[in-house]
Amino acid sequence: MNSLRLSLAYLRHKALSTALSVTTFAAGVAVIVVLLLVNAQLQNEFTNNLQGIDLVVGAKGSPMQLILSSVFHLDVPTGNISLDQAEQLSRHPMVKEAIPLALGDNFRGFRIVGTTTAYPEHYQAKLKAGGRYWKKEMEAVLGADVAARSGLQPGDSFAGSHGLTKGGETHAQFPYKVVGIMEPTDSVLDRLILTGKESVWYIHEHHHHDHDDGDDNDEAGAPGGPTGGRHQGDNAEHDVAPHAGHHADQDSMAPANRDVEDHAGHDGEPHADHDAGQHAGEAAHGGGREITSLLISYNSPLAAVGLPRLINKSTSMQAASPSFEMARLNAFMGRGTETVKFFAWFLIALAGFGIFAGLYNAMNERRYDLALMRSFGARPAKLFALMMTESLLIALIGAGVGVAAGHLLVEGISTWLANTKHIPMTGRLFLSEELWFIPVSLAVGAVAALLPAFRVYRIDIFKTLVQR
Amino acid sequence: MLEVNHLKAGYQDKVIVELPQLTLDSGEHCLILGDSGSGKTTLLGTLAGLLSPLGGAINVNGQDLAQLRGSALDTFRGRNIGIIYQTLHMVSALSVLENVLLPQYAAGVPQDREKAFGLLEQLGLADKKDQKPATLSQGQQQRVAIARAAINSPGIIVGDEPTSALDDRACETVMGLLLKLAASSNASLVIATHDQRIKAHFQTRIRVGGAQ
Question: How do the domains of chain B map onto residue ranges?
Answer without folding.
Answer: 25-52+70-207
